[in-house]
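Page 47, continued from p. 46.
Same chain as before, 379 aa.
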Amino acid sequence: MDIPVVKLPFSAEDISALADDFKALLSSGHIAMGERVRLFEEAFARFSGVPHAIAVSNGTAALEIICRALDLSGASVCVPANTFMATALAPIAAGAKIILVDVEPATMQMDPDDLARKIREDTRAVILVHLGGFISPRHERIAQITADAGAALIEDACHAHGATVFARKAGSIGLAGAFSFYPTKVLTTAEGGAITTADPELRDKALSLRQHGQSRPGSNVHEEFGLNYRPSEIHALLGLNLMPRAKSLLAARRHAARVYDRLLGGSVLEPIVLPPEYEPSYYKYIVRLPPNVARDELKERLLADYNLRLAGEVYATPLHRQPFWRAYPQTLAAPLGAFPGAEETCAAHVCLPIWPGLPEPDQEKIAEALLATVGKIGK
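Result:
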């Protein structure tokens, strides 16, 4: 097999159109943050169902700016133990300390019971991660626990462009959402990120913080501790090319997911299943492995026997096992302890290639190879 793990959503026609747009951009002499960034922000806000979107340099910057805007310095922030390290690093960079919360193996996301046990009086924010593009079916309880504690609910929606629950989009559920436009993401601008919010005060603070804390961007008057988190017109150009096709790209991912559902239905492999009112973005197509199948062996055999590479996990190493905490113990608000849900979740899943336009015959080959190899290892 020679099936890409990920494929950029730019056709030959897109590339030709972008080349013409890029020439016009260079000829204009304005390649820093300008009109195209503003147009992209407006388009992404409409797509996400929120009044405001603020484009920034990357998804980590989006999370950090939200945390800085909320003034979390000295506070504790609850983060799931199954997420990318940036989910914790962003609030740390804003001066907060981290409480890691275990996850539920069935959803691979934050366990509200463990959150209720660990949330404290000094907790000012809870970060809900839409892992793999799936909004947690426990998000309402998590939001209630957060609200009862007087904390802000922040969405790490870096995987979840266009994911919905009861027709509400990721990025519109909490006080603010953070998105990434890295090349592997559902929508990409090569590098880049965005903040979504309905809060005009947070919007204004974010606009200041992304440009060195200037009270009026470009004024050279600095009132906040901000850094350079600006996007460029070049990144916005890529985003503007994709936004008219965002819905169709999502539909194509969801179609590919339904094909996998059919091919793997009734097998020993368990996909993540949500109620019908939830529509994931399927940044990842995740399947849980049987207990007698070791992931490393499975991946080695798939590569050796079929030249088949799987996508990266979400995630292979739980957050509490990162060596960072030994080097920087002062960034923890509470001892690490045990995280059995995260241990099980991170060890026992794989992610299959999924991208818009993935041919069904290729999906059939992937499913056939996967099931055959799991069967051999499981004997």
